[in-house]
């Protein structure tokens, strides 16, 4: 496997440029902050941006933990990949990642200062240091279950066609990590309950009685107890209610909703 390294100081836009570099050099895999990425698909790993301390983030990014190393090596062994791009803040960091994952020596170094303009570097530094924004080179939908409840924004642009002539659309996600100066964003069950009450208050056929929220592995399960009017198309109205609840809770919180159960406790005649 040919090993590339994209090197640049923290906050210089490496993650933003990662997919462009991979596309230009026909690189199969990208290693970024503890994640293994293939195109727009997350293959495995855990993001360093989920760690609670800077030290924890560094350890996660270099695959210091044995279970983390084993997972990523196992995924790579299962597929037929010819090349990989490692993102690192220095050559030393890139080499350490390559050694931890037993990838061998790095064949080619690419420096962020060589592929970015001074304006690009200034903007990247401003977004990181002033706004606390971090880029992850994956679509928001792909990351939703891994960053449930965090503030995520989409960044999308079109890359030039590759050798096969295909146009490539790159979507990235902006997140504010736990260890940034913004701190961790959490959403209480009471807030979710209020969102559901507001979203369903105009429904004259189904009346909300109670809402139960269960947090499970950074996802949520919603159960709503309702009273319905006699003679309505129950299945149709319940499905519509579920869609409204899921849509509103997701739009307001970005939480990953595993399911939304509706239990009819009473029928008004």
Could you list some keywords that capture this structure?
about 270 residues, alpha/beta, Rossmann fold, Alpha-Beta Plaits, 6-stranded mixed beta sheet
Low-confidence stretches: 138-144, 147-162, 167-174, 178-184
Category by helix and strand content? alpha/beta
Annotation, overall tally of beta strands: 12
Helix content: 25-40%
Biggest beta sheet attributes: 6 strands, mixed
Give the strand line-up of the largest sheet: 4-3-2-5-1-6
Approximate shape:
elongated
Strand content: 25-35%
> How many helical elements?
9
Average pLDDT value?
Answer: 79
Structure characterization notes:
By secondary structure, the protein is an alpha/beta fold. The chain starts with a strand and ends with a strand. It is 35% helix and 30% strand. The strands form three sheets. It has a six-stranded mixed β-sheet with strand order 4-3-2-5-1-6, with helices on both faces. It has two domains: 2-130, Rossmann fold (3-Layer(aba) Sandwich); 189-268, Alpha-Beta Plaits, CATH 3.30.70. α8 (189-200) packs across α9.
Write the layout of secondary structure elements.
Elements: E1 2-7, H1 14-24, E2 29-32, E3 35-38, E4 41-45, H2 54-61, H3 66-78, E5 83-88, H4 91-100, E6 108-111, H5 112-115, H6 118-129, E7 134-136, H7 140-143, E8 152-159, E9 168-175, H8 189-200, E10 206-216, E11 219-229, H9 234-253, E12 257-268
